Amino acid sequence: MRAKIIAGNVLAVLILGLVSYGWAKASIEAELLAEVDGRIARDFELLGRSLRWRIRELGALVVAQAASKGARDVFGAIDESGRRQRAFEVCQRVAAWFGDPARGLGGRPDIVAIVDDRGHVVARDTDVNAMFGVDLSASVPGLAQALAGAADVGVWEFTQDNKMIHVGVAPILDEEGKILGALLVGYDFSNGLAREESRLFDREVAFIWGERVYASSFEGSQTLELQSALNQNLKSAVQTAREQQIPTSPFLVRFKGEEMIGVLGPLPFSEGKAVLGVFASRTAQLLKASSLQLLLLFSLVGILVVLAYGFLIANSLLRPITMVEDDLLTIMNGRFDHRVTVPEGELGGIAYRINQLLNIFTQTVETDERGVVISGPALEQDKALELGGEKTEEDRGLIERLAQEPEDAYYDRLYREYIAAKEAVGENVSHITKDKFIQRVRANEQNLMKKQGCRMVRFRVETQGTQVNLKPVFIP
Questions:
Q1: What is the spatial distance between Cα 307 and Cα 329, in angstroms, rounded to a whole number?
Q2: Of 51-65, 128-142, 170-184, 298-312, where does mean pLDDT reach its minimum?
Q3: Domains, in order of start, for the chain
Q4: Close Cβ partners of 417 (under 8 Å, ≥ 6 residues apart)
Q5: Quick one: which of 60, 144, 279, 464 has the most CB atoms within 10 Å?
Q6: By three-state DSSP, how is residue 160 classified?
Q7: 299-335 per-position pLDDT tens digit
Q8: Is 77 exposed, middle or buried (0-12, 13-18, 19+ CB in 10 A)?
Q9: End-to-end Cα distance, the chain
Q10: For residues 169 and 184, is the Cβ–Cβ distance under 8 A?
Q11: pTM for this one?
Q12: What is the greatest pairwise CA distance in the chain?
């Protein structure tokens, strides 16, 4: 029985805990996946806006530097060597100015160059002789517009350094507004830039040039896995983004054991040459639901509590039940004077009623310490005539008559009066035999005499309503 009580409680807690965990996990995971799946297209749009802002901001700063006196003075040099040296010094100064962390552009530019009015390089920042005379008018997006008098920005495949960079170009004008040349500043679409944008949006970023992953925020081999996916099942998505210049629908792909959802679309200002990819980990998103494992821990704690509590409760119930069973077995083995004894508690009342039932069947009268009858076949509690104190003439007469009445006549009369009273109230008396009745009355008289220290105890029959009682009379 103890095992059933404990097992039932444990099973209830376990089922409740598992059902709660399963339901909560399924609901929260569904919401988490819906959140990341629903946001990926918007995240792509936000990242695109961020890159547009970055590139336009670069263009605005280039315009300011191109309008400086130093940039104009480059073309005031008398000979070619002097112009090249001045151009190199200006490019160095502009590169240092852009590299100031306060600009928030990611450090020193990858290229700063000054070109003449034909688009030929006068000098660049890294080396006074590097790229001298190279014609950029056809390869750098926006340079032709700058040489026509309007600043512009774009994405340039800088083949000399094998880089994909975003550039800002602005015309260099003399004091009369004549176009002298142009200033060009460019930054690489590097892994660092991808990681910087990734931190802003908490999404993985990839820059795709042609058919290859040029740079990304992914770590280590994940970039190679992305490249492998591009070469296989994402090939058509890249082509769609490049040719149609629209973002793809969200798609699923796996990198290094993680399920990712991604969107591919045109890289801003790349004119269809490059693709921007934004990815979010659905696997990492689901890890946010790991805190639900606390429900399992709480269920385990609940099971331990139920085990301890169930053990205590089961023992508190089974111990008295075992005592009642042992007492009843003793009585069944012939000890009819034995009674059920259990501690006060849930089963104390049951034990009391069992003892009352036994007293009825065995014709046993039980009294308390004062001699008041507390149980028996018809011996209910009543106030006895006390030994001391004032007594009426009627009480004294009763005590004297009972004291002088012969014993056989007393028992015979008491039995007849008791049976008559029981029949008068409609009770069945067929089970009450005279010998058994007298035996039990004598036993109770002896007990009361010892307790009260009196010479004799006699009983008298009293009827109260439907209750027939035997009231002890103490004879000093």
A1: 31
A2: 298-312
A3: 67-188 (3.30.450.20), 363-475 (no CATH)
A4: 461
A5: 279
A6: coil
A7: 777 778 777 777 777 677 777 777 777 878 887 776 7
A8: middle
A9: 55
A10: yes
A11: 0.60
A12: 162
